[in-house]
Write a structure and sequence with these properties.
alpha/beta; eight-stranded parallel sheet; two-stranded antiparallel ribbon
Length: 274
């Protein structure tokens, strides 16, 4: 199983790590941590050296009840950073965490290689057409509502069945437009209660029936630190435990704040297959 990133085929039959770089002041864990160009480049270098295949840049916080910002503000935050990183690390594979097609288009044209859309095209009617025109890998996540309303949208007839149906519909729409490289993200923490998050992780292998790579975004999320009665800052060990479970259930990409520890999870789980 491969992804075509700027003409380079990335083999994800062995799981890969996506390092998170939040360019927002209000993200739940590291918001506001990278204020200068030097801070940003140092963090990217650390993640690349620790084994990140992809760097995921986000300039719109999607945590529950996050402020809505304008497209102009999002572009102002993210586009110069794409340019900055690729000037220093021209071979870096940058993923753009946005649900806005205009942001995605400009970042891809600047040199990013992948789009990570929390709404699977549901918050911007132009997104799927734009992805098809650029022929880049597309991560589609499961969410109901918006970041501002998702926590009021946690009712399901059958959680896993509903998510599989959602992806089946979104993938069909994407394929009809000619989108080839599709990754699914079940959306831990998005329109799901903590109990639902654990139920979803426990049955994650059922998503393999969709026959698309699975991205697991569990890093330092509230399902970990609320269960352990701690904080996001203290949730690294719990993150490693759940990342390991996700890998054993078929995850192909781990989206994480802590690349070194996630890479260790991959190496250990892969060793079980030897």
């Amino acid at each position: 199983m491969t992804l075509n990133c700027k003409g380079k085929l990335i083999d994800i039959s062995s799981p890969k790590i996506m390092g998170i770089l939040n360019l927002t002041p209000d993200s739940f864990y590291d918001g506001g941590s990278y204020k200068t160009d030097t801070d940003i480049l140092n963090q990217v270098e650390i993640m690349l050296n620790e084994g990140a295949t992809f760097i995921d840049l986000g300039a719109y916080s999607s945590r529950p009840n996050a402020d809505n910002i304008s497209e102009a503000e999002e572009l102002k935050r993210i586009l110069p950073i794409v340019e900055l990183i690729l000037k220093k690390f021209p071979n870096a594979l940058l993923s753009i965490d946005t649900f806005r097609s205009g942001i995605a288009k400009q970042c891809i044209e600047t040199g990013a290689c992948m789009i990570n859309d929390i709404s699977a095209g549901k918050l911007d009617d132009n997104m799927l057409d734009m992805v098809a025109s650029l022929q880049v890998p597309y991560i589609m996540m499961h969410m109901k509502g918006t970041p501002q309303t998702m926590q009021q949208n946690t009712n399901y007839e059958n959680l896993v069945k509903d998510i599989i149906f959602y992806f089946s519909e979104r993938i069909a729409s994407a394929k009809a437009l000619g989108i080839n490289d599709i990754i699914i993200d079940p959306g831990f923490g998005f329109a799901k209660t903590p109990e639902q998050n654990f139920k979803l992780l426990n049955r994650l292998e059922l998503l393999n029936t969709i026959n698309k790579p699975i991205l697991a975004g569990l890093s330092r999320k509230s399902m970990i630190y609320k269960t352990l009665k701690t904080s996001a800052k203290e949730a690294l060990n719990g993150t490693s435990v759940l990342n390991t479970i996700a890998l054993q259930k078929g995850a192909s990409i781990l989206r994480v704040h802590d690349v070194k520890e996630a890479n260790e999870c991959v190496k250990l789980v892969e060793s079980l297959k030897a």
